[in-house]
Amino acid sequence: MGPSSFISTITELEPHLKFTLCNGTKKLDKNTHLIYDILFFHEDILNDDESNNIIDSFNSIKILATKKINKISIYDDIVKLPTSLSEINQIIEKAASKKIFIKNSSIIIKEYILDKNEKKLSKSAKSLIITEKEVQLLELLLQHTNPITKNKILSSVWNYSSEADTHTVETHIYRLRKKINKTFNDNKFILNNKEGYYL
Questions:
Q1: Could you give the CA distance from residue 91 to residue 46 in angstroms, rounded to a whole number?
Q2: How many domains does the chain have?
Q3: Are the beta carbons of 121 and 114 closer than 8 angstroms?
Q4: Domain that residue 75 falls in
Q5: Residue 168 sits in a domain of what CATH number?
């Protein structure tokens, strides 16, 4: 997205690009990032505060073509102008790989996002760092629609025998519930009944 000269230049290069272009003349709105995996902007966008506020809220990979290196905090990468065809392709490919990596490492749980690589549970602007075992526990609970017994959790997450006399599951779930409630004010994230634990 950018001035018509920028759009026409990129469009002329399309046969030599390693990605598919979409119409870059559409006006930005809060849903633009839901349509495109990667958004490529010209530096002229920096002059529009309203657009920058919208861009800042986008989850898509954002790349800025610019001569100014200092105003890129909301962008994932830059293409330094003037540039070459190979540099554009390289940066877009790197961004696409990053997008795939992020997609594979993120899980949606209820209205939360669990980033398995950073071990971070997020909701809106708040986030919480959790342990590797807590990540495994949440993944296990997410994989089942029915409640999971303490013994099944012990064998799946901790590799303990179902006959082991331990309060490991209860202790970890208690601590995780406490952290989630403190950060997100949500005391119904992990539920339980007589059959076991569930989300």
A1: 20
A2: 2
A3: yes
A4: 4-104
A5: 1.10.10.10
Domain identity same for 25 and 100: yes
For the chain, give the mean pLDDT: 81
Whether residue 64 sits in one domain with residue 135 = no
The residue ranking higher by pLDDT, 189 or 53, is 189
Decide if 179 contacts 130 (C-beta within 8 A). yes
- Same domain as 137, residue 74: no
Q: What is the dihedral of CA 17, 23, 27, 30, to 10 degrees?
A: -70
- Give yes or no: residues 76 and 118 share one domain: no
Among 48, 77, 104, the domain-final residue is 104
**Looking at residue 138, what is its pLDDT?**
93
What is the CB-side half-sphere exposure of residue 3 using CA atoms within 13 A? Answer: 8
Of 49, 79, 104, which one is at a domain's C-terminal end?
104
Mean pLDDT of 19-29: 61
In angstroms, the CA 90 to CA 84 distance is: 10
Please say if the pLDDT value at position 20 is more than 70: no
Statement: residue 25 has pLDDT above 60? no
Judged by DSSP in three states, 198 sits in: strand
Pairing of strands 126-129, 120-123: antiparallel
> Looking at residues 131-140, what average pLDDT do you find?
92
Q: What is the mean pLDDT of residues 126-148?
A: 91
33: Cβ–Cβ under 8 A, 6 or more apart, which residues?
Answer: 39, 57, 58, 59, 60
